[in-house]
Amino acid sequence: MSALAEAAAPAKSAAPQTVKTYLRPIDRDGLLKFAAAGRADPSRRGTNKVHTVMQGQYRSWSYVGIHNPVVVDEPLHLFGENTAPAPGEIVLSALGGCLGVGITAVATQRQVKLSKLEIFLEGDIGNPAAWGADGAEMQPPQMGFQEIRVKVLIEGEATRDELDDIVSHANYYSPVANSMRNPIPFSIGLAD
Question: What is the CB neighbour count within 10 angstroms for residue 81?
Fold first, then answer.
């Protein structure tokens, strides 16, 4: 076959290949060093700091370090402007973020590559006390989230049972989930 005929002939295509993509990994060596430091001193603690400034009505900006502020508002039916998520939705966002971090860390420690991780959260909350502004008389256990439901959509190089164990393990050790499950000392007062 001449060079001209070869060039005109249809190209032979390679067999199609399935490309599997994975979520961007974290530094496993750094994670293992962090875990070792925790084992060496289980009393280690950090302090999260947030500065919240009201903007008017129920809209607020919460400043966290050098990041853009987290904006919070209330929906129209609660007298807000509905310009941003409500405080309870931000709490669920924090829980989803913490569970996502934990699941990623446990999968990394176990050397399981994840290709998908999505977390769906919903919580039942009411405000018949109207924030204490002459609403229903209630006790603290009756207010706030009364139930939270979380569903995790996860895929990776592991069996369903192994993925379920990763999720369960991360939930057990989640700082935010445990903050919600356990009573914690809480103080509030006027700034100096």
Answer: 14
